[in-house]
Every structure is written in C-alpha cells, then in structure tokens.
Design brief:
This protein is an all-alpha fold. The protein has 13 helices and no strands.
C-alpha cells in the first residue's frame, strides 16, 4: 500500500488538473457560476421544510426542521454527487484512457475532490443556518472529520467498483439514478432514525449512510458523541468496500482501454 501511494503521488499534478477540469466543467457557461452551489441546497431545504415539516409534520428530534434536514442533506448530496458523476467518469474520459497511461483511479479521485469543494460551500450554508436559528457548535464539532473520512472511504470504494463496471455494462449508468433515489429514502434524511421500528433497527444500520448521517446530526445539532455501534458498523463496511473496490479496479484497469 505504501508503494501504491508513493506511485500515486507522482501523478499529483495530473490529479490537480483533473479536479480543476471537473469544477470548471460543472459551472461552465452558467450565468450564476459557483453561486449554484449555494442556491441548490437553499432551494432544496426550503422545499423539504414546507413539504415534510408543515405538510407531513415529520418530527425533527427537537431541532428546527430546516437545520435537521440540511444536516443530513449535506452529506447525502456529497454522496449522491460522487456516486452519479463517479460511475460515468471513465466513460466520459474515454479519449484519455485509450491514449495515455496513468493510474485510472485518478479520474475517480478527481470526482471526489471536486465534490469536496461543493461540500465545503454547503458547509458554509449550514453554518449560516445555525447562526440564523441561534445554535452553536462546540469543540465536539471536530468529530465530524473522522465521520467524513469514513464517508469518503465508503463512496470511493463504491465508485471504484461501479466505474469500471459501467465500462463493461452501460446499464449501470442508467441504473444509478434509481439506486440513489431509493437509497435516499432508506437513509434517515427527511425523518429521524427514531421513527424506524426497533425490530428493524439492527438491519437498518447495515446501511453505512444511516450511521454516517445520524453521526452528523448528533455532532452538529445535538453537540454529543454519535452512536458508536452504528458508526463502527459504517466504518467496518466502508473499509471492506474500499479494499474490495481498489482490488477490483486494479485487476480490470488494463482492460478498460480495449473495451472503451
């Protein structure tokens, strides 16, 4: 692994240019430019608050629903963005993959890095919401860093599997939007985990995003230690998925150019 990381660092400048390209491609010829990164979450949180708080009257664990929902929507948007863009990343860079050698996973890592930029901007919006509702972060807020690391590990592992699979079977790219939509409702984003019946809870937390999203809320809203059991399950699953994803990606890496 150390040798692998050392070899990968030799291509750090290429990674930088891929990240820059991803960011520019996303906002190219957009009138509002990067402002969309602020506008999209604000619109979503407005819709969520009206529909699920005022109409459906879903509980929010004692927090303002806008803060409650956005605290989960922020990591979910990061996850969904990476999953959607990362799955088709090798196909969209077909010309480079066919003509030039470089570690192909750099393309995947660039998608993740560019999504982190949007995540950071969304984090600024979240801090604005906390200020508006008179809520404060404590030193426990730093615990969000290992939680975010677990999430990155999980989503990178997934797209290391799905991106080459999408090269071999293009149906994967068509299936991903449906998977994202179903997965969202299987994760406590618009509702609290307390609504999940106790008898199903042990199976429910096998979804790593459930433990991760709940950890975000515990740390950022309730200023408390997250549930270590569900977070440990998320960390273990994420690590296994990452290792399997990296092994699979490296195994099929040299077949990609021929199939593309």
């Amino acid at each position: 692994m150390l040798t692998y990381i050392r070899n990968l660092l030799q291509y750090r400048e290429l990674l930088y240019f891929f990240v820059l390209r991803e960011i520019k491609a996303k906002y190219k010829q957009a009138v509002l430019g990067v402002a969309w990164a602020f506008l999209q979450p604000l619109v979503l949180i407005g819709v969520f608050t009206v529909v699920f708080s005022y109409f459906a009257r879903l509980p929010s664990d004692g927090a303002p629903y806008a803060v409650f929902a956005y605290c989960a929507l922020l990591p979910w948007q990061f996850f969904a963005t990476v999953l959607g863009r990362g799955t088709g990343s090798l196909v969209s860079h077909q010309g480079l993959v066919q003509k030039v050698y470089f570690p192909r996973e750099i393309i995947v890592f660039a998608v993740v890095a560019s999504a982190i930029v949007d995540f950071t901007i969304g984090g600024i919006v979240f801090l604005g919401l906390l200020w508006y509702y008179g809520m404060q972060l404590t030193i426990l807020g730093l615990l969000i860093l290992p939680v975010f690391a677990i999430q990155v590990c999980f989503v990178v592992g997934i797209i290391l599997i799905l991106s080459p699979l999408n090269v071999f079977f293009r149906d994967i790219g068509l299936l991903i939007p449906l998977i994202i939509q179903v997965w969202m409702y299987a994760t406590p984003i618009i509702y609290p985990m307390s609504l999940v019946p106790e008898r199903f809870r042990s199976f429910y937390v096998l979804n790593p995003m459930a433990g991760i999203v709940e950890a975000y809320r515990k740390i950022l809203i309730h200023n408390s230690i997250p549930d270590l059991a569900s977070l440990s399950i998320a960390a273990a699953v994420s690590f296994v998925v990452f290792v399997l994803g990296l092994k699979y990606f490296k195994r099929v890496e040299f077949k990609l150019a021929d199939v593309l």
